[in-house]
């Protein structure tokens, strides 16, 4: 199935796809989540590879503004994804065609967690965690809570020892409420829907990543319970 066919499975406006293809060659899907999909693409005008994050149509029309705003405020900070400015279609890193929204990022070559998690050395794990906290320090210094820190959102280029924190789609600057996040990585206060969530929820998630790396697993069998509280107690006591 071609990348174009993959896109057309979803309610993508044909005009949006036509506009994107005027400047970009879509190569492959590299990731997907609750709120969007990420595609590798080649920018024929500016002659470089980019990542296009297409937000699903059911999101609010200003969803891209919040995520782009957080990332722009972190411009130049180490280990944090950057918007890619690609005129003429995306001079500010944003693609808007009527109700379709997409963000344009630098393309970052990285390894799959299922490949590297099996044999990282203690030294590599130490460097990985140090670089994750370097990124989180910058995020938290601006009062931003990422809310979805996990292996798949902290990209790792093992060969070149490079790291990148991505996906600020759930990020908030005010004190968030609710239970948003990825199961298994959410802190207890998130699971319980506490109204007093802080940047500490990201630190908890980073701790889960460390547990993943030390145990050489990309996830744990903590989904046996429909109730996340029971699952959390079973794992952590």
Keywords summarizing the entry:
237 residues; alpha+beta; Phosphorylase Kinase, domain 1; Transferase(Phosphotransferase), domain 1; two-stranded antiparallel sheet; 33% helix
Task: Please tell me about this protein's structure.
With 237 residues, the chain is α+β, with helices and mostly antiparallel strands. The chain folds into 2 domains: 3-106, Phosphorylase Kinase, domain 1 (2-Layer Sandwich), CATH 3.30.200; 113-236, Orthogonal Bundle (Transferase(Phosphotransferase), domain 1), CATH 1.10.510.10. Helix content is 33%, strand content 19%. The protein has helices spanning 3-9, 14-21, 63-73, 113-116, 122-141, 188-191, 200-215, 228-236, and strands at residues 24-32, 36-43, 48-55, 94-97, 100-106, 154-157, 162-165. Strand 4 (94-97) and strand 5 (100-106) form a beta hairpin. The protein is globular.
């Amino acid at each position: 199935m071609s990348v174009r066919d993959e896109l057309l499975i979803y309610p993508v406006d044909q005009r949006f796809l036509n506009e994107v293809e005027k400047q970009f060659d879509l190569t492959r899907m590299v990731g997907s989540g609750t709120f969007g999909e990420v595609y590798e693409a080649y920018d024929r005008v500016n002659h470089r590879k980019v990542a296009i994050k297409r937000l699903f149509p059911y999101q609010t029309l200003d969803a891209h503004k919040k995520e782009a705003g957080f990332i722009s405020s972190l411009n130049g900070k180490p280990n944090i994804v950057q918007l890619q400015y690609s005129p003429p279609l995306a001079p500010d890193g944003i693609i808007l065609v009527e109700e379709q929204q997409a963000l344009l990022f630098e393309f970052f070559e990285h390894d799959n967690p299922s490949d590297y998690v099996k044999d990282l050395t203690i030294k590599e794990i130490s460097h990985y965690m140090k670089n994750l906290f370097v990124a989180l320090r910058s995020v938290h210094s601006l009062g931003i809570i990422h809310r979805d820190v996990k292996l798949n959102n902290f990209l790792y280029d093992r060969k070149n020892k490079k790291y990148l924190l991505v996906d600020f789609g759930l990020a908030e600057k005010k004190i968030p409420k609710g239970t948003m996040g990825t199961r298994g990585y959410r802190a207890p206060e998130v699971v319980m829907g506490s109204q007093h969530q802080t940047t500490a929820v990201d630190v908890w998630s980073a701790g889960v990543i460390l547990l993943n790396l030390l145990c050489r697993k990309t996830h744990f069998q903590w989904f046996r319970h429909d109730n996340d509280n029971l699952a959390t107690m079973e794992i952590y006591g």
